[in-house]
Target: Cobalamin-binding protein
Amino acid sequence: MVKRAVTSTIVFLLLVLSILNYPSCAEEKNVEIEKIVSLAPSNTEILFALGLGEKVVGVTDYCNYPEEAKRKEKIGGYSTVDIEKVVLLKPDLVLAAYGNGEEVVKRLKELGLNVAVVSSKPETCIEDTLKEIKYVGKITGKEKEALSLYEEMENKIKEITDRTRDAKKVRVTHICWHEPIYVAGAESLQEDILEKAGGENVFSDKKGWHTVSLEELITKNPEVIIVSSGAGMGGEEDVAYNYILEEERLKSIDAVKNNRVYLIDADIIDRSGPRIVDALEDVAKFIHPEIYSENAQ
Model:
């Protein structure tokens, strides 16, 4: 189980640290879309949220939400896409992401498939996710549904930021792995979540996902530590969370001393999909429990 968690985390970190140079928009072919293959969990969640679940015929090994996605044909991982299987599914549209790799996208296009790359680089803010939802809606004929989802998410974001805007900023970090320690730095989707939730990212001096030493974490002394569950993308054991709680050298950190180390579902905070607003709300509650307490006005 731990071996599986370690493997999935290595895959995750390789993806978020990669920035590929292929365009985000595919040649949009004027075809009726009846069969879709998704090459990323975030894409899969967007498709189902737009009511396109029945048209999804293939997904990655990591696509586990909603429950129905688990029953779809598996076409491999991010960088290990089984191209032959994708072709055999005869999709009208293949939804790719930056993590799939330039060669995979190029090969699928060479084979005559209609490929749309939803994100050509790691997202840097929640607004990127909202734009991706509208883009998927546009190329699948679900613009009305996409706009509805967009507005619903925007309203939820505003509701949360209105509550946290005037609250005292709390020093916080988001950790997804511990060997080595990986934290969310500047220009990352996770930093945007931390800040919108009323936090101050102690590692804003780092860019993107970044490794830090144990000493750096101790020196930054965050008041709140938020740790991704499992190991990201399918890991079952909360090894990073357990490490933060049990490592003796971290006992001096305020977050550890004051029992403010929180576990968050890796899938909702690490995926650029509709559930990102759920991650924002969870983080806001972790950082500012006083605002969300029953006695809060």
